[in-house]
């Protein structure tokens, strides 16, 4: 069991940023409206994620750390209608197999909270504690028992950079949640939880980018796209500013990348890339995000519809056209 968890951990837990991602997604799935993420030493020695979500009921705490224990799928057909971010039930078992974890959680229906300590997959402490509703997950010394994997980590500064980019993506994709992000005790990012997308873009990228944005909006049945795209004048030397979210999830997609870059092509020099921040709402059956455990790659059922929508909305916005979606 423990060996399997350690191996499984290799799929889910690659580096501190992937731990943060799993813990934050659990917090979001638990309905949190405020989430605090703290890291030290790039997250290698310390990651703490605190949320005000529904907590884990006392009797379910050790269960949540077992492989494939998930509370999020109740029926087979649910797989087609996944709205929660995590559904494989392997994050907590994987993370706890390769770190020293401590959890404090309280569900509103419980009188007391629970403190649970699990190190390298071994349960150490399970006790009642006083705690507010919600969950704190603390992960110490990632890969302390898998030195070969630890060697693959980069410097603390680089690892912190990965976490920071993820936190920015989160803030952009979830304006309705208040995020607080601390690195080595210093506040790096704080969003209010009731800001609009442009305010969040301003908070992350600053004024120079924010004032060169064009709003976009596109809607046909089963698909809506909205957000902001940058004027060609704020082109960048890399693709880090091509942000897109499918149903609230930050993903990578060669198809979207191609549609975006083709639309910008007439305006761009070679090796320059645009700023875009696009949010796609696609009917759950038309999109498959379950192609890789870290859930970054996405597949669309109707590729040409997504491609054309993206290409057209950018082309029209750059040409200064009013956006009138086709009626289908
Ligand atoms: P999954 O998210 O795929 O269900 P995880 O291993 O990430 O699997 O989590 C296991 C279970 O632990 C979840 O299904 C959920 O019931 C519970 N859980 C984990 N984190 C939280 C949290 N922050 N708040 C409430 N419940 C949580
Ligand atoms: Mg999860």
Automatic annotation (TrEMBL):
Going by the entry's taxonomy, the superkingdom of the source organism is recorded as Bacteria
Any one of the GO BP annotations: mismatch repair
Family per similarity comment: Belongs to the DNA mismatch repair MutL/HexB family.
**One Gene Ontology CC term in the entry:** mismatch repair complex
Span within the parent record:
9 to 336 of 636
Alphabetically ordered keywords of this record: DNA damage, DNA repair
The organism that produces this protein has a lineage beginning with: Bacteria, Bacillati, Bacillota, Clostridia, Lachnospirales
Looking at the keywords, is Transport present?
A: no
Q: Which organism is it from?
A: Blautia hansenii DSM 20583
Q: Where is the DNA mismatch repair protein S5 domain?
A: 201-319
Q: What does this protein do?
A: This protein is involved in the repair of mismatches in DNA. It is required for dam-dependent methyl-directed DNA mismatch repair. May act as a 'molecular matchmaker', a protein that promotes the formation of a stable complex between two or more DNA-binding proteins in an ATP-dependent manner without itself being part of a final effector complex.
Instruction: Please give the Gene Ontology molecular function terms for this protein.
Output: ATP binding; ATP hydrolysis activity; ATP-dependent DNA damage sensor activity; mismatched DNA binding
What is the name listed in the Swiss-Prot or TrEMBL entry for this protein?
A: DNA mismatch repair protein MutL
């Amino acid at each position: 069991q423990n060996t399997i968890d350690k191996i499984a951990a290799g799929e889910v837990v690659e580096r501190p940023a992937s731990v943060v991602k799993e813990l934050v997604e659990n917090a979001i799935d638990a309905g949190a409206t405020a989430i605090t993420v703290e890291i030290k030493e790039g997250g290698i020695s310390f990651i703490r994620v605190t949320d005000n979500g529904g907590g884990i009921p006392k009797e379910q705490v050790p269960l949540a750390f077992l492989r494939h224990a998930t509370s999020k799928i109740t029926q087979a057909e649910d797989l087609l209608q996944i709205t929660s971010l995590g559904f494989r039930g392997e994050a907590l078992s994987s993370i706890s197999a390769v770190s020293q974890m401590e959890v404090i959680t309280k569900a509103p229906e419980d009188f007391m909270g629970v403190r649970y300590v699990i190190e390298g997959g071994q349960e150490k402490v399970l006790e009642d504690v006083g705690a507010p509703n919600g969950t704190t997950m603390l992960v110490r010394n990632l890969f302390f028992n898998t030195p070969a994997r630890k060697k693959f980590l980069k410097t603390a500064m680089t690892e912190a950079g990965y976490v920071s980019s993820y936190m920015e993506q989160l803030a952009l994709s979830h304006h309705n949640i208040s995020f607080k992000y601390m690195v080595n005790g210093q506040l790096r990012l704080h969003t209010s939880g009731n800001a609009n997308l442009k305010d969040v873009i301003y908070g992350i990228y600053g004024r120079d980018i924010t004032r060169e944005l064009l709003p976009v909006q596109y809607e046909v049945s089963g698909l809506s796209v909205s957000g902001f795209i940058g004027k060609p004048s704020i082109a960048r030397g890399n693709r880090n500013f091509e942000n897109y979210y499918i149903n609230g999830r930050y993903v990578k997609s060669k198809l979207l990348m191609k549609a975006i870059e083709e639309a910008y092509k007439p305006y761009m020099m070679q090796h320059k890339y645009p700023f875009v921040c696009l949010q796609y709402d696609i009917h759950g059956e038309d999109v498959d995000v379950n192609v890789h455990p870290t859930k970054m790659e996405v597949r669309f059922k109707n590729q040409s519809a997504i491609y054309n929508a993206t290409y057209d909305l950018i082309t029209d916005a750059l040409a200064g056209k009013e956006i009138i979606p086709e009626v289908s």
